[in-house]
Design a protein that fits this description.
Length: about 230
């Protein structure tokens, strides 16, 4: 791996070389191997001018949600993480075709690994949350099929649908407001609208209690370690 990185740094960035590095550092773009985090600062330095390096560094950060990798990443490479955040943010301002990739990478950098792993573009998104009152597994749909909560039946599909209640912009705060403002800044209207539903409220189809979608999902899917994202 050090030899391959040295070759890339020397300008020998062929497609086959990058494919080999992907295999060695981030298998399938989502599984880290020994040495992945150690390679991160060198990849970030390359990312200043090399898109492949930016993609690989982003994939490593997003994949660091496993085990203790996320905690180690913030502790061992704070300067590289800070620069990567700036590079990704700069890329998002150009409104690239793969915008969601960068958006999810920034979420990982902010320590929001649960959203980084599952957030879609809200063209056809589904999330599952447990009702805090009756424990029913509630399906949340945000996208082309509608904006609703329901009970998912394997034969009948989504039954007893209840309309979601989107959060108003003034109600958004914390990470929800950060996500919304970033999407609006970059003209990602569907993403911004979807975030208001994700941060909004849903009605349980069994007991009719109202729950906050994002709160219930985050509570069930936060990583096991307490991460310390950059401030």
């Amino acid at each position: 791996m050090p030899v391959l990185l040295a070759q890339v740094e020397a300008g020998a960035a062929s497609e086959s070389l990058w494919r080999e590095l992907w295999t060695m550092l981030c298998v399938e773009g989502e599984t880290l191997v020994p040495g992945s985090l150690a390679a991160l600062p060198r990849l970030v330095a390359l990312a200043r001018s090399e898109t492949q390096a930016l993609n690989m560094a982003g994939a490593i950060v997003r994949s660091a949600m496993t085990d203790d990798q996320g905690e180690r990443m913030f502790m061992e490479s704070p300067h590289a993480i800070a620069e990567l955040r700036d590079l990704v943010d700069r890329s998002l301002r150009t409104r690239p075709s793969d915008y969601l990739w960068g958006f999810r990478t920034l979420l990982a950098i902010e320590g929001q690994f649960h959203w980084s792993a599952v957030l879609g573009d809200f063209s056809d998104d589904f999330y599952e949350v447990a009702c805090p009152h009756c424990s029913l597994t509630v399906t949340i749909a945000i996208g082309g099929y509608g904006h609703y909560s329901s009970y998912r039946d394997w034969c009948a599909g989504d039954v007893d649908r209840r309309d979601l209640r989107a959060a108003s912009v003034t109600e958004l705060d914390g990470m929800g407001r950060w996500m919304y403002d970033l999407a609006v800044r970059d003209g990602q209207d569907r993403l911004a609208e979807g975030i208001t539903y994700l941060m909004g409220r849903a009605e349980c189809p069994r007991c009719a209690s109202v729950l906050r979608v994002a709160d219930e999902y985050a509570a069930a899917n936060l990583p096991p370690t307490r991460l310390h994202p950059l401030s």
